[in-house]
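Example (one chain per record):
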Amino acid sequence: MAKLTTDELLDAFKELTLIELSEFVKKFEETFEVTAAAPVAVAAAGAGAAAPVEEVEEKDSFDVVLEAAGDKKIQVIKEVRALTSLGLGEAKALVDGAPSTVLEGANKEAADKAKAQLEEAGATVTLK
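Predicted structure:
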């Protein structure tokens, strides 16, 4: 078999359907024990077939924001005191001043737990 130039290979790939090209890439990876994921993505983006992919960073710290105290304001104040080291007056001021941040930089688990406790007490809470 005659050796094909890069341009000849590209012309041959242009005639393939996406399914055929995908099968070729899988076979190529198996044969040469390599991963062609990055070059394929670059080629697809260069051909205008796909929009650039942005990597989404998963947040690891959250702010628990009290949006509104709701009808059970006393229960919400108790929960704010349990979640923070605030005194009664400070917790009441935080609840009265809603929207306000109850916890800053909490991990996902702690933020979800705090949100659940505050919502159970009747508050409206968001995570940012």
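Caption: The first helix runs from residue 6 to 14.
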